Amino acid sequence: MAKVLLNNAFVDESEAKISPMDRGFLFGDGIYEVIPCYQKKPVGLKLHLQRMNNGLNEIGIQYEAKLEEWQSTIQTLLEQYEAPDMGVYIHISRGTDTKRFHAYPQNVSPTVFAYAFAIPPSQVLDRDKAKGFRVTTVEDLRWQRCHIKSTSLLGNVMHFQQGQDAGKDEVILYNEHKNITEAAACNIFVVKDGIIYTPALDNHLLPGITRRIIIDSLAHAGNFDLREQAVSLSMLEDCDEAWLTSSSKEIGPIVEIDDKKVGDGRPGKMWLAAQTAYNAYKFTC
After folding, report:
1. Which of 3.20.10.10, 3.40.47.10, 3.40.50.150, 3.40.50.1110 is the CATH number of 133-284?
2. pTM to 2 decimals?
3. What integer is the mean pLDDT of 139-160?
């Protein structure tokens, strides 16, 4: 039986229990992170914990995710498994109160939970063998604080389900100005005429860690033109390539948008170059 972390103790998964009065259960009142680990090495751990601490501070949960502690915890979780490629989910809720009341309670301790799970291996660096993704586009109907990685994900879940119901892998979201925000569970990049674009960060999209590492890795490689700016729906529809990016997908090439092929309908040359640059850089941060 695999063990998980619950409130500073490693316990059997079947024995990990929280109160139904936990605010994470009642309100989705918490912050989470998913850290990919390839060959049992975490990717972007410092960046993930920094974002977690930023989110905790923003919603007023009194907890600090410390690098040394989480390095040890993650290693303990990973050592249970033979599989080299795993993800680690970390979940910090505000904690358990004696009553259900919207305002933040005083003098409660955060609930801290973490477990490891299998993830797909890193993308195959082959345009004919890499997994391509098919997406559809819909208007973004979520709340206005999407930069917080909150455990309250119903808006994202409902959009993702729209894609599933349409037989697609993901849903790309656009705002009232017909500008792309992100996907239900990913950030977005598009390529046109050799230039890579990704929506600039604001409160409508998550500051993805994979997104950040991609930007840094392409800058480090030095031979890419990448621009953070508004990306319109029409730019997406007319792109040469488009990518989904996330901790579990790395750089996922989009091969179809709203039933229309992207390029020749297979992962593009820029995707291959970007994924190669990302692979060379991802363990350095």
Report:
1. 3.20.10.10
2. 0.96
3. 98
Token digits of residue 192 = 């046109």
Please, which pLDDT band fits residue 186 given cuts at 50, 70 and 90? very high
97 pLDDT more than 90: yes
Q: Are 168 and 144 in contact (CB under 8 A)?
A: no
pLDDT of residue 285: 87
Beta strands 187-192 and 250-257 are: unpaired
Question: What residues are labeled active site?
Answer: 149
CATH fold for domain 3-118:
D-amino Acid Aminotransferase; Chain A, domain 1 (3.30.470)
Cβ atoms of residues 275 and 250 within 8 Å:
yes
User: Is residue 56 pLDDT above 90, yes or no?
Assistant: yes
- At 1, is the pLDDT very low, low, confident or very high (cuts 50, 70, 90)? confident
How many CB atoms are closer than 10 A to CB 279? 16
